[in-house]
Structure of 60S ribosomal protein L13:
Amino acid sequence: MAIHHNNILANPHFRKDWQRRVKVWFDQPGAKKRRRNARTAKAAALGARPVKSLRPAVRCPTLKYNTKLREGKGFSLDELKAAGIGRKEARSVGIPVDHRRKNRSEEGLKLNAERVKAYRERLIVVPRHSKKNKGKKPDLKNVSTVRDTAAAFPIPAGVVAEAPRAITAEEKDVEAFRTLRDSRAQHRQAGAVAARLKKKEEAEAAAKK
């Protein structure tokens, strides 16, 4: 093939020793064991503190996945207010705060507020510096159940699927397309209808004078 235009001259490198540059993952089993040991050491170093922070239940984005719930980054300020806890206190006891989140539904707000309340009921806070606890061992019963927050406070199912059933006669008589079109037309013409009624009332009031 002839060379056209002012292009770079072809200089293919076909004799490189690629076997010395290939990447392999033979250390994957060892890395898995190393990560597991690191998690165990971290849990032992934390003592009675939760290994994982409590996370809110949030909706997945887009119309395709919004029926599912997943773990979010942090609780919103409205959720903490509904649970009766401040943002500084929440961060100090392992409750992450996301000030950018907005609550779009009462159900989501109530769900996450209940999660915070349930977490606080089972949480045992041991002060770092306190004269009362000096020389005394705190009562840490049932702390092991609180350390794994994902297992103790699982994310609930987003939508429970409805069981199959027969279509009723009333549902068969409903015309879905006509209902949607009428609703759309009423919403679109609501302003004009209200203005027309107001004008009519003003005209009647002027005629009575």
